[in-house]
């Protein structure tokens, strides 16, 4: 049964009144309880008051009596008299108040008895005093009255405690009743509010329903009215166009639309044709295909489309004052029996209401019927006209048919004659078919032969692949067999050439040098053969990186300048201006290898006083390297074969020029792999020009030959490889080394460009310094030790030893590491130099102003006797410990405990170095460093991060950009922190306290890492064991040996204290891989360092070594210094 609105409201009203009555009743009952509770609280307070009065009266009676006994004055008896009168009253009042409490009745009865006894004793004492008989028997003197008073006090205290407990209980009961009343009141009031909200919601829902019904009724009436007027407008025998005009006029007027159009579909249901428009400013399209635009899409989808905020290009409204774009466009399909009869489009400056849209949808039904009726009438009229026209045409066709029959008789005679001719042609075709069958049989035989040839080719390809695999395996094995004895030759000849024990004559040392040089040449030949085989097998690895074009030319120019000078050959290098600051994405090592091969050939075949030129041009996003010489030239018939492996122009036994014939072959293959090309232009007797074209941007898809795989790695180099140029003699240039005195201030210039070094020398002399020039890296280090300069100007691209290695050796030498090193180089590797301890980094070309600024910084730094260090650490003990560690007479340390304080100090003080902890209270160390690096005045200050937190990968990457070095807080981290600050503050180690000098010396004494260590050398070649054992024992290393993996495992079990294993790979019984796997299975040797020694320098060897559990990898022939360095790393870990 449906409940009416009146009953719902009445029910809610009755429910609210009931709750109000309950609230009133509960309030009344709670009020009575509160009154009762308050009365009992007042009663308790009265009891407590009477107890206090009893105690007070007893005390005053005692006090007054004692005063009288002591003084004899009657005035002291006034309190006694008043107390004796008041006590009975107070006791009676207490009896009345506590008559309902049996426990208190007992206390009051006892209290009454004691009070009477107490008053009686005091009266006796007073009487005795008055009669003069107050002797020793006086109760006051004996303390009897005080004892009774104490009992009274105890009873009063007990009674007071009882009343206090009752008071607390009654107070708690009162609070509990009040809280319970509040909770109940809130619940009842909440219920009333909820009921009122529900009643309000019911009323409002019914009111909204009534309004909706009223609105819907009005809209329906409006729609019915519009439908009737539309039907009236469409009445009559109207054709399509007048009907369309009547429809759009009525709809636009009735719907108050601003513009509109009517499109009628053709019979094929493919296009819509415009029949009427209303106030359309721009000419609407006359024909629209289904699916084209809004109109076509409405027809194709058979659904209405409403376009809000329509662009002006759709339709425009034409008025007397101009044009305007409608805000909303609505397209509605007109359907008749599931067929699209047309589309109505209306536009308005406002939005269409729901009623308008509904009316338009309903109107399309009657519009569709009217349109279809009009079109049917039109088609009927057209058919009538067509029938009349066809009747006339039929009469004309009958006349034509008669004429055709006459012509047909004549053609029949011609056909009979043609039939005779066709029979003859059929016989000829049969003969041709026989010949075609014979040719088909021949083609079938040829196809079988082709299939056999294809199978033969596939077998050949398989044989070639097998041969290629055997070739690669053969080269790998040959590499092992050649490198193994070569390893011993190079190591032993190097040991003999060093002549540490001075046992060899000078001639013997020279022989040893020749042996080592010949072995190195043989190693280069082996490497060339392996390079060629890797390229042919598609195993070449590329190291793609962006490289300045000028950096390549600097390296090559440095390499061949001295060679040109020794051969008396003119060597020129030219670079197009557009390439001066350009970079090329390529494998720098391979590009330089190509240019070295071409230039080596050019110098080899160019006679004395000849010319060799290297030029660089830009051409179609390519860099074109041209190596031209005025040598002997190459005959036309030899220009192609020289690019083949092991082929030369003169291959006879009496040839004048040596060589393997591999350089040009390798160069061409490398150029192809790098996505470029190489070609030759030469005239015999006049010279040759090799032209290498390489793309500015490496494209791997263009570089890899078909069927080959090239491994490409893109990364940034951090350290330049040392040039393989033979060591050149550093002849004495025109500098000041011969005029030095003890008081001179010396600046060392390490620069291989003679002209630039002379420019720097002149600049140095102008500033009052003496200059020493070194053109090679190794002599630069030697000169630094000899002349102890106050500053060093260093280039990076140096022969023999590159600039980074020079800087590393200087900063690792305690006697040199304090010297500021100013790098001046074309290499864009500033961060690497600064991390190694450079004072500053300048890019070539440099101006005189740049040099002045650089020297001003150096002079300010070297003249500053006191360096300033800022320590940013929030832990006070840590901060003080760092100051104590680094502090000395030449460094003043400042402390900052917050990031903001540190930045304020940096803005007001000039600091030389900063130590930062990452965990600061107000900001992270990262935030502080980012602020410092963003400040142009502060971003050159070295920052050392000293932290104990675990660094994630992203933290390490951020620190790589912000900090100069990172020191993790460990047991020995303070020594490294001291070392890093000495490096960046350029402190003189000799001026440090002795204990700190010992710390630095211990830290840099690398041989201590090797001393007395036990190494297991596993190799089946006795020559390798002999040579490596001698080399290692010179470093105070104890060597144990094993000839194969099985023996190695036995030695390890017998000597578990072995510190490191050198493991050969190819061995009998158990190879290096199997041995390593067996070692790692033993938990005791899980962390034992194992370094692989192998001559199989093929792709994938290193990955396989690391996969089976080896720690690192070094290829034969073993470079002893490299091996020692690798051992130090793993033994130090």
TrEMBL record:
Residues 746-859, 868-984, 1014-1131 form the Response regulatory domain. SUPFAM superfamilies: ATPase domain of HSP90 chaperone/DNA topoisomerase II/histidine kinase (SSF55874), CheY-like (SSF52172), GAF domain-like (SSF55781), Homodimeric domain of signal transducing histidine kinase (SSF47384). Keywords: Kinase, Membrane, Phosphoprotein, Transferase, Transmembrane, Transmembrane helix. The modification 4-aspartylphosphate is found at residues 795, 917, 1064. Residues 383-402 are annotated as: Disordered. PROSITE patterns: HIS_KIN, RESPONSE_REGULATORY. The keyword Phosphoprotein applies. It catalyses: ATP + protein L-histidine = ADP + protein N-phospho-L-histidine. Residues 477-698 form the Histidine kinase domain. Signal peptide: none annotated. Pfam families: CHASE3 (PF05227), GAF_2 (PF13185), HATPase_c (PF02518), HisKA (PF00512), Response_reg (PF00072). GO terms for cellular component: plasma membrane. Residues 383-392 have a biased composition (Basic and acidic residues). The keyword Chaperone does not apply. The chain crosses the membrane at residues 9-28, 181-203. GO terms for molecular function: histidine phosphotransfer kinase activity; phosphorelay sensor kinase activity. It is an enzyme of class 2 (transferase). Its EC number is 2.7.13.3. Gene3D superfamilies: 1.10.287.130, 3.30.450.40, 3.40.50.2300, Histidine kinase-like ATPase, C-terminal domain. This is histidine kinase.
